[in-house]
Specification:
CATH architecture: 3-Layer(aba) Sandwich
Distance between the termini: 11 Å
Helix content: 25-40%
Number of domains: 1
Oligomer: single chain
Order of helices and strands: EHEEHEEEEHEHEH
Shape: globular
CATH superfamily: Peptidase C15, pyroglutamyl peptidase I-like
Number of helices: 5
């Protein structure tokens, strides 16, 4: 039997404008509804702090410690109406929007300006198709923004790990809200995780 592969799945804590982050709910519930093993793939779950300081203090040490074979990052964006599989991270950091600690990044770039973009490497089309089969509205995106979601994908891709970022909208607020409700978001996110595990087998 081949060596067991590992898949790290992350979400984020709340941040300004997102008092309830659905991706933190995913990570809280996935150990029960998905478990820690899919065939020969071991799953690890973590909620990351929505802070610029957390990039180096939490996220990178976590990846160092676990040594995953692939990473799925989930994050929420209040401006999205559907689910986006991000295919691109850009070398840009928002200098206006504060993080959960009220801080801004130190510079407008995530790394030396010469490198402009990094492409997602964990089967974006397969993950989109898997999520879409749940009935959710899902599309590929080349705009991960310039906040912590983009920065987290940028950092992980820089480690030459198969990685992808999945943006979900904020929680549905009622019957006239066209955004998907939480159960559908969770089913789509679960489908993404299970499909990603299949790519590692």
């Amino acid at each position: 039997m081949s060596a067991q592969k590992t898949l790290l799945v992350t979400g984020f804590t709340p941040f300004p404008g997102m008092p309830v982050n659905p991706t933190a709910l995913f990570i809280r519930r996935f150990p029960r509804i998905i478990g820690f093993n899919i065939r020969n793939v071991r799953l690890h779950y973590a909620v990351l702090p929505a802070t610029w300081r957390g990039r180096q203090a939490v996220t990178q040490p976590l990846i160092d410690r676990l040594g995953p074979d692939a990473v799925i990052h989930f994050g929420a964006d209040g401006k999205r109406s559907g689910i986006n599989i991000e295919t691109l991270a850009v070398n840009r950091a928002n200098q206006v929007r504060c993080d959960a600690e009220g801080r801004l990044p130190g510079t407008a770039y995530l790394a030396q300006p010469a490198e402009r973009a990094r492409r997602a490497t964990l089967a974006p089309k397969r993950l989109r198709d898997a999520a879409a089969r749940t009935g959710a509205a899902v599309s590929l995106s080349t705009d991960a923004g310039d906040y912590l979601c983009n920065a987290t994908l940028w950092d992980t891709l820089g480690r030459e790990l198969p990685a992808v970022f999945v943006h979900v909208p904020r929680l549905n607020r009622g019957r006239y809200d066209r955004r998907p409700d939480y159960p559908l978001l969770e089913r789509a996110a679960r489908a993404v995780v299970c499909e990603a595990a299949q790519t590692l087998r």
